[in-house]
Amino acid sequence: METCEIHVNRRGINSIEVPPQVEVEAGFPLLVRIINDGTPVHLTLSTSNAGMFTDFYHENLYVRDVLEFRIPTKEDAYAGFFDVEAITGYGTRKASFRVFVKKYIQKEPPPEEEVHEVVPRVHRPAIPWLLLLLVIMGITAYGGWVLTGQPLLAHMAILVLLAGVWLGWHTER
Question: Cα separation of 34 and 18, whole Å?
Fold first, then answer.
């Protein structure tokens, strides 16, 4: 990621200092670091001829001390350039710089060495059988409550089913 520094209020109120040009590869953003050496200021960044290289058009920024702003570039952009204009003081001060876009050349990543990790085997308890047992007990207690009307069976069914839910929730997958 290429970085461009813009200094504001360093030489006077609303003064702007920009580099003459910067380079960026297509597909990578241009990081614009705005450094304010004075009182807070509104700075407008705009472009008029950048449609082939970026979707960025215009942004009004409030800069207290240091602000970083990214201007994305299109991955499929061809080599070329566009201009970025920095404006302060409600249009009374302007400065511009040229952004040269280099065509992105995909570099082959270095071959990775094979890494064989030894994953320790984790012993899992037979929780599904316990869950199945709790569900069967809960359904049996519920069925007994429906047939006999005993409130103790209804409470037991609820407690057993809640225990099964709790156990299922807290087991590792």
Answer: 10
